Structure formats: structure tokens, C-alpha cells
Amino acid sequence: MRSMLKFAFRFIKNDGHRVTAKCKAEGCPWSIHASKGSATQLISIKTMNPTHTCRGAAVSSGPQATGSWAWRGKESAQEHLQGSHKDAYSQLPSLCDRIMETNPGSLATFTTKEDSSFHRLSISFHATLSGFVQGCRPLLFLDSIPLKSKYQGTLLTATAADGDDDRQNGLQEPICEIFKGSYHGYCLRCIAEQLVRDLKGQCSQEVKRIVIEDLHHADFAPNPEDFNASVERIKKN
Question: Are residues 147 and 197 in the same domain?
Fold first, then answer.
């Protein structure tokens, strides 16, 4: 990375979750900070000061050089934290063997082209195959997502609808029967979205915002008193 950037820099932070680097030249403001997202686990540049007041300015000046550096810098940071795509592809055969070994009845196939380069990976777990045959409608819904990695490609998915219900209603009664006396949780985000739909046309956006805020306070309440107080505020609104 140093030879590619044509100037010396030093790491301020460099671990499995974030990388921060600054130019080694005294007083030069150039810096970059990249970190891993909590949801996607992808590496992204959060902040960057591309300005050099040292000799590195000659290399990084101009929109073409800066854009190229930013892209290569991002790829280098991703490889440093997540490993190389090349190494990941080489591990796919052993991944398929491991899936077949630890999930009997599952399917995991890996094929290559004539030049031995990657061609196709297909995975179907036994639980999903069995569930489709025993409890889903005889329909498959296909979708494709383009992969934006170094080698690109396409992710194809096949899903099916529950035979009794498209949503969670089909699970409520069986869960209560099989797991008697157990606690049943609901997704807070789903409850909040449904509540907003139920309040449509009944109150202003500000009231909706306050109600959702109190809903979150109730969910994270550390004791019964705070929970009851949040519920009472929701009722008053």
C-alpha cells in the first residue's frame, strides 16, 4: 500500500474493525478513517482529508489520481480487515465439504470453468429443502442480486411461501402448543411500523414520533416503573 500511495503514512488505529491512518510528514493534514459496518460487515471510508501540504500533494492532486487512490485504498482496507477475495474463493471447496458433513441431507456444490477458475456455487440446507416439501406451496420465487466485490458475479436466491400463511400468523398457534409456557418475543421494528400504519390519519406526524419514542422507552425500560410510565404516556397520546 505504501508503494502504491507514493508517500509515507502511519497507522493510528489498525484492528479487525477499523483503520485510521495519517501522513507521516510533520503538520500534513492528510488522513483517512475506514470501519466495518455493524449490519453489513462491509468496510467503508467514513472520513477522509485528501489534502497534502507535503511532497505527497504532487501524487494525490487532480480528480483522477484522487479517485483512483480512494478506490484502491478502500480495496486495501477491506482486504486487510476481511481477507482477500482470492483466498476466500480458494476455500469454497472445503466449505462445501464442511456443509455436507455438518448438515446431513444438505446440498453444496462447487464447479469451475475449463481454466479452473470459479464458475458456480450452489447451497441448499436440509432444513429448507425439507420445509419446502412438507409445508410450503409448490411455488418458487427467484431473485438476483449483483455482487459488487472485486470479481463481481451474481447472487441468485430461491424462496417459497408458507403453506398456511404468508406471514407470521401460521406460526403463532403451533409455537404456543409446542413451547408451552415459554415467552414469545416480537420484533420491535415490526411493531413500530404496524403502529404507524394503525395511526394513519388519526394524529399528526409529531404525535406519531412521540408515541414511537415512548414505545422504544418502554421496550428498554430497566424496571417496571419506567415501563408503566412509558405505557401511560402512549395511552394519553
Answer: no
Query: How far is it, in rounded angstroms, from Cα 138 to Cα 168?
Result: 19
Q: How far apart are CA 143 and CA 159, in angstroms?
A: 9
- Quick check: is 7 in a domain? yes
Rounded to the nearest 5 degrees, what angle is found at the Cα of 142, between the Cα atoms of 139 and 148?
A: 165
User: Would you say residue 218 lies in a domain?
Assistant: yes
Q: Are 34 and 19 a contacting pair, CB within 8 Å?
A: yes
Q: What pLDDT score does 2 carry?
A: 39
The sign of the CA dihedral 120, 154, 92, 121 is negative
Measured torsion, CA atoms of residues 182, 186, 187, 193, in degrees rounded to the nearest 10: 180
The answer to whether position 51 is within a domain reads yes
**Which of 54-58, 113-117, 168-172 is the most confident on average?**
113-117
Answer positive or negative: Cα dihedral of 68, 71, 72, 74. positive
Q: How many domains does the chain have?
A: 3
The separation between the first and the last C-alpha atoms of the chain, rounded to the nearest angstrom, is 57
Find out whether 161 and 139 touch, Cβ atoms under 8 Å: yes
- Predicted TM-score (pTM) of this structure: 0.41
Same domain? 96 vs 75: no
When pLDDT is averaged across residues 82-98 and rounded to a whole number, the result is 86
pLDDT digits (tens, 9 = 90+) for 177-186: 766 776 667 7
Domain of residue 232, residue span: 186-236
Cell 485504498 -> residue: 73
12: in domain: yes
Beta strands 154-159 and 141-146 are antiparallel
Query: Is the domain of 151 the same as that of 102?
Result: yes
Q: How far apart are CA 220 and CA 223, in angstroms?
A: 9
